[in-house]
Design a protein that fits this description.
InterPro entries: DUF6697. Keywords: Coiled coil. This is DUF6697 domain-containing protein. It comes from Suillus plorans. The protein is elongated. Among the domains are: 43 residues; 103 residues, no CATH class; 178 residues, no CATH class. By secondary structure, the protein is α+β, with helices and mostly antiparallel strands. The strands form three sheets. Strands 1, 4, 5, 8, 9, 10, 11, 12 and 13 form a nine-stranded mixed beta sheet that branches. A two-stranded antiparallel ribbon has the order 2-3. It has a two-stranded antiparallel ribbon with strand order 6-7. Helix 4 crosses helix 5. Helices cover 42% and strands 15% of the residues.
Length: 499
């Protein structure tokens, strides 16, 4: 078999190679188109992302504008309410018929400084002694102007309204006519109005007191260090010219729920603090001691007492029911309560007209509080200082108590030397005078005693030691017996002096 050699000619190789070249040309032609498409897709993707970001930004701006619009709407609503209140004030009869919650403040200063720095000067048109319930004069809030001689009410620029409801407050100055300012209620966390919030008065920050001073002492320790009685509210109250001792108040929180919570803080006491026993005005600071529980009296600081007033009947329901019950039950069971009612009835008789005397019963006291015949005074306590040196005195007398007066009298009696009757009479009268001065004054007469049921005098503590009894009932009977003995002694001395 012959081997044949087949040779490929150029024509054959060109025939078989031509299709491969055509495919390569197509691929090279498509590559630029793919690149263009990819570039176009990338640019469109970037454009979509930018548009998405712009849309998100526009949505945020729209939301912010909506919030601003809501705030402006709320401000407009508040201004509308304020305008309505202003228009209502133009009619005195309308104001009296409105169901507003009112509080009355009395200021010993002739000028009242508002929180925004505006000074309000009073112009006369009311008597100071006139019933404050008739002293709400209609005024339209406006820019304060210079005082003039016309008998018109002062005008005050009110603070911005923080909530929907505002109240009228009358500020009284000693020997000065009425002043009116607009005060805003502040809602508490529970949604209720906190009438005793003091922020609108601009009292400033509290005094910072170290925690080591927040210690309570027995009432006898306080009396040994500062003077004053063991159960009295107003202590060293003779007057600045009659004694060199510091005057101070001793308050229990059961009767005064809005006392300062901590030493150095601001608060409210339910009593008037205006004059000493000698009739002189209280111009300097008054120190305050408070008790949360028996045998725990804490010194709170020195307080300015220029703002004071009365709780109106419309505002009585803003007090806690337990506080009102405490005042009613305390008045029925103590001498200060009977004196409170007797003095109120005497004032009602002096006013004349239709007399509705206050009945000395639980229902009678509640009815008198609700209709305004019985009034609970209050004083705003602004802390202006703290006497740290007193704390060292408390610590000293806690470990070195003074001897009870009963023991001193026994030592003198055991000496066997009797004083002449005339001298004994003078001493008894002097003791009675001191006792009456320590019991309180006219301004603090309707104020509960600064003690609690578990706080006793040194004489009773000495008797309790001799009897060896810790029973509260036995100590109460012992205290009542000692009180009756003192009254009998004073009555005998008075009868002897008259004869």
């Amino acid at each position: 078999m012959h081997n044949e050699i087949i040779e490929l000619t150029d024509s054959d190789s060109d025939f078989h190679a031509s299709p491969v070249k055509q495919d390569s040309d197509k691929t090279s032609h498509l590559n630029p188109e793919v690149i263009v498409l990819k570039a176009s897709l990338t640019s469109k993707t970037n454009l979509v992302e930018e548009q998405g970001k712009e849309l998100t930004k526009l949505r945020k701006e729209n939301k912010q504008l909506k919030n601003e619009q809501d705030l402006r709407t709320a401000e407009i609503a508040g201004l509308q309410d304020e305008l309505k209140n202003t228009l209502r004030q133009l009619d005195d009869q309308t104001v009296k018929n409105l169901n507003f919650n009112m509080i009355k403040l009395k200021n010993l200063k002739s000028n009242a400084v508002l929180p925004n720095g505006t000074v309000v000067e009073a112009t006369g048109h009311y008597d100071v002694d006139q019933d404050m319930s008739d002293n709400f004069a209609p005024t339209a809030p406006s820019q304060p102007s210079n005082p003039i001689t016309s008998r018109s009410s002062p005008t005050v620029k009110p603070e911005p309204v923080r909530v929907d409801t505002t109240i009228k407050v009358v500020i009284k100055s000693e020997n000065e006519p009425d002043q009116i300012e607009q005060v805003t209620f502040v809602k508490g966390e529970d949604g209720k109005f906190d009438v005793w919030n003091l922020e609108h008065l601009g009292l400033g920050p509290p005094i910072v007191v170290e925690e080591r001073f927040c210690v309570g002492f027995r009432r006898s320790v306080i009396s040994d260090a500062l003077g004053g009685g063991h159960q009295t509210t107003s202590n060293n109250w003779k007057g600045r010219t009659k004694t060199d001792k510091f005057p101070y108040l001793a308050m229990t929180r059961s009767y005064n729920p809005h006392l300062p919570l901590v030493p150095g803080g601001h608060g409210v006491v339910f009593c008037g603090v205006k004059r000493f026993n000698d009739g002189s005005l209280i111009e300097g600071p008054i120190d305050l001691i408070a008790s949360d529980k028996p045998n725990q009296w804490i010194y709170l600081g020195s307080y300015e007492t220029s703002r004071w007033g009365e709780i109106s009947p419309n505002q009585l329901d803003l007090l806690q029911p337990l506080v009102i019950q405490r005042w009613v039950s305390g008045a029925l069971s103590t001498l200060w309560g009977r004196s409170w009612v007797e003095r109120t009835n005497a004032e009602l008789v002096e006013k004349g007209g239709e007399i509705r005397l206050v009945d000395f019963t639980e229902d009678g006291l509640r009815e008198a509080l609700n209709d305004g015949r019985l009034v609970i005074n209050f004083t705003v306590m602004k802390c202006v200082g703290y006497r740290t040196e007193w704390f060292e005195q408390f610590l000293h007398y806690q470990t070195h108590p003074k001897a009870p007066k009963s023991q001193k009298r026994k030592k003198k009696a055991s000496s066997g030397v009797k004083k002449p009757f005339a001298k004994r009479l003078k001493v008894s009268e002097r003791r009675k005078e001191v006792s009456s001065e320590s019991d309180g004054d006219d301004e603090l007469q309707p104020t509960p005693p600064g003690s609690d049921k578990d706080e006793f005098s040194d004489m009773e503590d000495g008797m309790k030691t001799r009897l060896g009894s810790d029973s509260p009932g036995a100590r109460k009977n012992l205290r009542m017996s000692a009180t009756r003995s003192r009254r009998t002694l004073y009555s005998r001395v008075s009868a002897s002096s008259q004869n």
